[in-house]
């Protein structure tokens, strides 16, 4: 059974070649058997009759009317096809004729070069933030060479970029290398497997040049601007860059270069560096580290040393990067929830986890850990000390009574964002005589329920006790393991293991992840400002549209302010 | 308030309007508000003392045509005494090229927007040479007007009926593919117009001689379709007018002294500033010295997304721009910077069938410092001489700035 549908457009003139093209495109759509697109002249109606396409509406059309007829396998297919007519008619064919025009705005440049991933901004500082913001609105990464951009503008631009999954390199960013193409001032550095993130332009140049001299190369050299690692900015761009390098399979070693950052920023940055699970060389220029190596972190003291260490680390890696392990967790499962009965165990867990996980909350106070708004309700990664007064009013301490902890355990298990639940089980005199007998069935039930909901829930327990304790430590461990719990007898090891399990689930940065493809392949950019940047990109084979830019409203501040308010 | 949404609506209405030439009628019978003592003129409001040479000449000619005056002195007296009133065509759903004089007893084209139902009007085009619209008013001009009204108009009127009207929107879309831009070049459109009406004219004419004269008059006049095209553009622009919160320009017009615009979301208020002098090419014997200030309602074409905005469609007249086809392309490309949309129905083959830049947004004009580019004929500064060239002109930036400030005040930005 076939269905015929037609549409008449009055007074719509199209060249016959355009109509034949539309007819061919309609006929090629799924489910479409035949199509006719003609002006409603008598001769054309005869043609439609020949193909059995003349509907009563088409019959009634005049010579100035456009007739579109679709014969399809079903009414729905015919309707779908007619719904696409506008899109097919307006689809842009590229025209070389437009290339001689120099656009006067980023918007026009973006229309002419829709594939551009970057906007390079080197206009006077007072206008730079406005230009950069427009670039972000158009979905472009920003290379912000301009200086004299206020700190507030820097923060708001970088926050917006992060929300959109875009990078703002700068302000006052002199250099970057993206997939082998240098932006701003950059050396010709071969492509390779080292990713460099730098808050220092010449630092980036020195390190990447040295890497090249040593026979290696870089995936990207991403600049952040000198203020990125200040407390106010909080390393937004540097964290995004680390996130890019963590996910980028071609990046096998990472280098971070910066002047010594603020303490809290340094902690966040190093935590993110650890979470990349790749060797990271850190050079906080002029900073003397306590130890040269800390897990996957390698501290360098000079730019040269940073390059040399990175190349050496790369050379030590096996030729082939190991295939990434498939995650057993469902999408959305991200967080660790620690339900502790022992206060000091909880405190030590926080000390370990704050260097591993972002967004860490607790009902204990520790620098770098956020306070839970409500101790009864976990947020992101949470460690809760159930021995705190708020939980023990009118009931026994959780080391003696498992009831409260089991209820909280079910609450956490039901949260689709929970990936892993961490427990301490403290044995000995005074404690519950057989905690595993109550915890294990609850854990088994929670795991089954999660499984039924398509999630994978992991449990880690730290058992504190001796083989002479009245509870029979070996039997306790056996019961818990039988329920699928990973058991440790050291708090430090158990917490570190739990942290490592969820580390890959936690993004290094808020907002949207930067699409790796947007940093790959032929670079295409819109340049606003200095001509030399456009020229040097062209010399490197990149596509560039150089905007004939002028200040908004000709520099009239009153009008520019009105326009800004109208943009809202 | 969402300005972008309002603008999308306004320009959507402009593009979806479907202007069709449905008939002709006497101005006093068909144009709203027309009366015995009223003359309509191009551009924003003007009085006698501030009027340019061609405008004064055209007013004089119009009053001679109406039998109200014999010369400029009498015309001046009538206007200054208030016995004869002057009002802009645009305030009466009308448009007229150059001086744009439209009088109570003139036959006018009636354009109906079939989509939204609004009407627009324009007078008939007199052709080249000494003509009323350029301020000429001697016996030759009067004789021609008399023939047009007594002989040609009745035949055209019947011919339009016989052919069932002329779809000007479809005609324009086709003409853009034939090298017209719809303002300075209407060669192809005028031939399409002649083609549409010829069967009707042949039947409606009282004898073969009259039929032949009318066909020749239209065929010889490469601007024959300009006036219906302008009225069609007016019908499209009016459909976009009055959208609350819209910053889209719905009128651009000049009276030889002032350039005026109106904005969709700002009601009937005119924003005016001094006209510029067009830059262009002059007929033999004339120079820029002889040129009048910019004049005419024909800028309604640019307002509706054709004319200078569609320059890339008309490579044959690039000499007005400066000589190279690239300059013509750049003119259209630049207009994309200040417009809301690319026209759904009017497009340019040379730009990969890209829609023409449509719907001037005062925000973009002010922000980018780019004023609309207008193609125009150039009138002699003295009344009675006529057209001396053609070229390019831009409105003053100040009127867009004033409109922007008024918009901000009205809507509380």
Please provide a written account of the structure.
The complex is a heterodimer of chains A (568) and B (413). By secondary structure, chain A is an alpha/beta fold. Chain A folds into 4 domains: 3-97, Gyrase A, domain 2, CATH 3.30.1360; 103-172 and 523-551, NAD(P)-binding Rossmann-like Domain (Rossmann fold, 3-Layer(aba) Sandwich), CATH 3.40.50; 173-324, Succinyl-CoA synthetase domains (Rossmann fold); 335-505, Rossmann fold (3-Layer(aba) Sandwich), CATH 3.40.50.261. Helix content of chain A is 38%, strand content 20%. Chain A has 20 helices and 23 strands. In chain A, the strands form 4 sheets. An 8-stranded mixed β-sheet of chain A has the order 8-7-10-9-11-12-14-13, sandwiched between helices. Chain A has a 7-stranded parallel β-sheet with strand order 17-16-18-15-19-20-21, sandwiched between helices. In chain A, strands 6-5-4-22-23 form a 5-stranded parallel β-sheet, sandwiched between helices. In chain A, a hairpin with a 2-residue loop joins strand 13 (293-294) and strand 14 (297-299). In chain A, helix 9 (201-213) crosses helix 12 (303-316), helix 13 (343-353) packs across helix 18 and helix 16 (435-452) runs parallel beside helix 17 (473-482). Chain B is α+β, with helices and mostly antiparallel strands and 413 residues long. Chain B has 2 domains: 18-229, Enterococcus faecalis V583 fold (Alpha-Beta Complex), CATH 3.90.1710; 242-411, Alpha-Beta Complex (v583 fold), CATH 3.90.1700. In chain B, the strands form 5 sheets. Chain B has a 5-stranded mixed β-sheet. The radius of gyration of chain B is 20 Å and the shape is globular. The model of chain B has no long low-confidence stretch (mean pLDDT 95). Classes of the chains: A alpha/beta (568), B alpha+beta (413). Chains A and B meet through helix 6 and helix 20 of A and helix 6, helix 11, strand 13, helix 12 and helix 13 of B.
Find the biggest chain interface: A-B, 36 and 45 residues
What Rg of chain B do the Cα atoms give? 20 Å
Domain unit count of chain A: 4
Task: List segments of chain A where confidence is low: pLDDT < 50 over at least 5 consecutive residues.
Answer: none
Calculate the mean pLDDT score of chain B and round it. 95
Residues in helix, % of chain A: 25-40%
Number of domains of chain B: 2
Outline the biggest β-sheet of chain B. Answer: 5 strands, mixed
CATH class category name of the largest domain in chain A: Alpha Beta
CATH architecture of the largest domain in chain B: Alpha-Beta Complex
CATH class of the largest domain in chain B: Alpha Beta
Alpha-beta content class of chain A: alpha/beta
Question: Which fold name fills CATH's third level, the topology of the largest domain in chain A?
Answer: Rossmann fold
């Amino acid at each position: 059974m076939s269905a015929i549908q037609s549409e008449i457009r009055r007074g719509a003139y199209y060249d016959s070649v355009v109509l034949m093209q539309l007819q061919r495109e309609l006929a090629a759509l799924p489910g479409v058997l035949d199509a006719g697109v003609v002006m409603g002249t008598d001769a054309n109606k005869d043609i439609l009759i020949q193909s059995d396409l003349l509907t009563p509406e088409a019959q009634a059309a005049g010579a100035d009317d456009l007739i579109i007829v679709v014969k399809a396998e079903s009414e729905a297919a015919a309707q779908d096809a007619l719904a696409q007519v506008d899109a097919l008619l307006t689809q842009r064919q590229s025209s070389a004729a437009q290339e001689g025009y120099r656009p006067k705005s980023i918007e026009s440049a973006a229309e002419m070069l829709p594939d551009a991933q970057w906007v390079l901004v080197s206009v006077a500082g007072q206008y730079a933030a406005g230009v950069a913001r427009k670039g972000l609105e158009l979905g472009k990464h920003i290379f912000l060479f301009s200086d004299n951009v206020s700190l507030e503008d820097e923060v708001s631009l970088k926050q917006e970029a992060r929300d959109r999954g875009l990078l703002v390199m700068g302000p006052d960013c002199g250099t970057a290398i993206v997939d082998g193409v240098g932006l701003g001032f950059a050396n010709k550095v071969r492509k390779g497997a080292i990713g460099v993130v730098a808050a220092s332009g010449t630092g980036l140049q020195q390190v990447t040049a040295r890497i090249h001299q040593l026979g290696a190369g870089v995936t990207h050299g991403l600049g952040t601007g000198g203020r990125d690692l200040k407390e106010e900015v909080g390393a937004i761009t540097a964290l995004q860059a680390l996130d890019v390098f963590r996910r980028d399979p071609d990046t096998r070693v990472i280098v971070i270069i910066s002047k010594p950052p603020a303490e809290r920023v340094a902690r966040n940055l190093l935590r993110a560096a650890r979470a990349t699970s790749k060797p990271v060389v850190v050079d906080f220029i002029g900073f003397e580290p306590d130890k040269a190596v800390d897990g996957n972190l390698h501290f360098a003291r000079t730019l040269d040393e940073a390059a040399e260490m990175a190349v050496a680390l790369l050379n030590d890696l096996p030729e082939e990067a190991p295939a990434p392990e498939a995650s057993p967790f469902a999408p959305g499962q991200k967080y660790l929830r620690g339900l502790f009965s022992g206060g000091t165990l909880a405190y030590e867990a926080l000390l370990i986890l704050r260097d591993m996980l972002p967004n860490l909350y607790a009902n204990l106070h520790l620098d770098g850990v956020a306070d839970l708004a409500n101790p009864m309700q976990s947020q992101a990664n949470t460690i809760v000390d159930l021995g705190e007064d708020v939980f023990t009013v009118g009931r026994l301490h959780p080391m003696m009574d498992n009831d409260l902890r089991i209820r909280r355990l079910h609450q956490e298990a039901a949260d689709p964002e929970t990936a892993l639940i961490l427990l301490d089980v403290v044995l000995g005199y005074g404690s519950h005589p057989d905690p595993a007998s109550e915890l294990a069935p609850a854990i088994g039930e929670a795991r089954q329920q999660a499984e039924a909901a398509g999630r994978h829930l992991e449990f880690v327990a730290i058992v504190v006790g001796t083989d002479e304790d009245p509870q029979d430590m070996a039997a306790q461990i056996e019961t818990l393991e039988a329920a699928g719990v990973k058991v440790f007898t050291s708090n430090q090891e158990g917490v570190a293991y739990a942290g490592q399990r969820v580390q890959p689930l936690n993004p290094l940065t808020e907002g949207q992840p930067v699409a790796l493809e947007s940093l790959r392949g032929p670079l295409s950019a819109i340049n606003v400002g200095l001509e030399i940047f456009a020229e040097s990109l062209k010399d490197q084979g990149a596509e560039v549209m150089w905007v004939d830019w002028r200040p908004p409203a000709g520099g009239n501040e009153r009008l520019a302010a009105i326009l800004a308010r109208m943009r809202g | 308030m969402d300005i972008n949404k309002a603008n999308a609506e306004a320009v959507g209405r402009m593009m979806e309007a479907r202007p069709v030439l449905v008939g002709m009628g006497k101005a006093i019978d068909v144009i709203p508000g027309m009366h015995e003592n009223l003359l309509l003129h191009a551009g924003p409001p003007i009085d006698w003392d501030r009027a340019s040479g061609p405008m004064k000449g055209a007013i004089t000619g119009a009053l001679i045509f109406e039998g109200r005056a014999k010369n400029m002195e009498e015309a001046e007296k009538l206007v200054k005494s208030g016995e004869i009133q002057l009002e802009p065509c645009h305030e009466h759903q009308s448009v007229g090229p150059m001086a744009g004089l439209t009088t109570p007893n003139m036959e006018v084209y009636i354009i109906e927007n079939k989509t939204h139902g609004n009407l627009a009007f324009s007078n008939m085009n007199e052709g080249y040479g000494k003509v009323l619209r350029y301020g000429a008013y001697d016996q030759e001009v009067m004789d021609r007007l008399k023939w047009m009204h007594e002989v040609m108009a009745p035949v055209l009127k019947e011919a339009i009926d016989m052919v069932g009207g002329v779809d000007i929107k479809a005609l324009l879309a086709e003409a853009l593919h034939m090298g017209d831009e719809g303002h300075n070049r209407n060669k192809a459109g005028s031939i399409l117009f002649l083609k549409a009406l010829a069967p009707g004219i042949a039947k409606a004419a009282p004898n073969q001689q009259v039929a032949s004269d009318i066909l020749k008059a239209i065929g010889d006049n490469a601007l024959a379709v300009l006036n219906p095209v302008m009225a069609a553009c007016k019908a499209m622009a009016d459909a976009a007018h009055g959208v609350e919160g819209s910053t889209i320009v719905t009128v651009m017009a000049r009276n030889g002294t002032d350039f005026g615009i109106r904005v969709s979301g700002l009601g009937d208020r005119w924003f005016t500033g001094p006209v510029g002098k067009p830059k262009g090419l002059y007929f033999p014997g004339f120079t820029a010295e002889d040129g009048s200030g910019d004049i005419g309602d024909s800028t309604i074409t640019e307002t509706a997304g054709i004319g200078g905005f569609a320059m890339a469609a008309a490579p044959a007249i690039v000499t007005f721009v400066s000589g190279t086809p690239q300059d013509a392309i750049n003119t259209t490309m630049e207009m994309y910077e200040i417009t809301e949309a690319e026209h759904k129905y009017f497009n340019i083959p040379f730009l990969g069938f890209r829609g023409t830049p449509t719907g001037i947004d005062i925000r973009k004009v002010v922000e980018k410092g780019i004023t609309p580019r207008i193609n125009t004929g150039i009138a002699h500064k003295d009344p009675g001489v006529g057209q001396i060239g053609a070229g390019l002109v831009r409105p003053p930036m100040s009127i867009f700035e004033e409109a922007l400030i008024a918009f901000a005040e009205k809507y509380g930005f």
